[in-house]
Amino acid sequence: MQFDFFPSKSLTFYLGRLFIARILAVLVMLVLVLMMLDLLAKSGDILAVAGNGQGELLTYAGLRIPQLIQRFVPYAVLLATIITLVALNQNSEVIAMKAAGLSAHQVLAPLLLTAGIVSVASFAFNERIVTRATATLKAWEAAEFGPVPEAGASTIRANVYLTDGTNVLTATNVTGIGENTVMSDVTWYERRPGGMISQRSRAEKATYANPGWKLENVEQFDVGRADTKTLESLTVGEGLTLDQIELETVDPDAEDFFTLSRSIDAYEAAGRRTSELRAKWWHKISGPLSAFLMPLLGAVAAFGLARSGQLFLRAIIGMALGFAYFVVDNAALAMGSFGGYPPFLAAWGPFLLFLLIGETVLVRTEE
Questions:
Q1: What CATH number has the domain spanning 153-250?
Q2: What is the pLDDT of residues 269-288, one digit of tens each?
Q3: Where does the record place it (predicted)?
């Protein structure tokens, strides 16, 4: 029995069922509370748009909930670990399992297996649901919760910032691909070599003019003369090619794993910096896999005598280890985004570090 990772099928199913029920309960509680707070903050902006009502609030909730699930699945696994192990300890079930000859790792094995299944499910959910919801929600937010240009979510890019020499072109939304690309709510800034803006041109729409981008119904403001005039059309940004538009509008949060991989290859072929994209590409795997780490970090709550008075302290230590991981993970990802860490280290360094910390704490205290 000592050398069998899952010595009892009944015990494995019992602990796994107990654990998954608590994960779902904690996750539902977190998502409902956070969604309610989010709606309180955003409902005013949504309802301020003429024609928006309860349907739009439900649409926002439907797009936001997948993002909340993605972010808080590891937290839910951590809290469920603490709740499950504290209850097992208080009811002397851990003592019974250890008295039967199970090691600390064997006690945790069903929880680790369940957390691994949750990690795989979370990865699939992120790739199929969250990326599409994120793309759609960002486009809707960029339109200030008004009508979004008719296009599939995968072809909408929000808040685009492009440079053509010293000049700058911004757009609220970019839809379509290739020569059918259309920009919405466009602003073109003509700047002198020193960086001073000489003219600002605004238009509701811009289409590809080959070369350049054709702005329609333009409102142009001349800074030097403090004069405003209206033009039927204006072609700007002749140095902005379709390939550059595609590269500049890559959003790693709105692209799935394989699409983002192709975007990174395109960046590298163009000689562009890929550290931020590569770090987030790796994090698409390490992020969901962090749920697998949580039972190990919270395991300190499972052991020690419940009557010793240290059970609460052990639960706090397990919770502190889990939340410390999230802090270090976010910091490392931020460092990787601007090149402070190599992308692989930024995404996987915190996971491997806390895997060793969790194993060390478990072995030193229980094995």
A1: 2.60.450.10
A2: 766 778 888 899 999 999 99
A3: Cell membrane
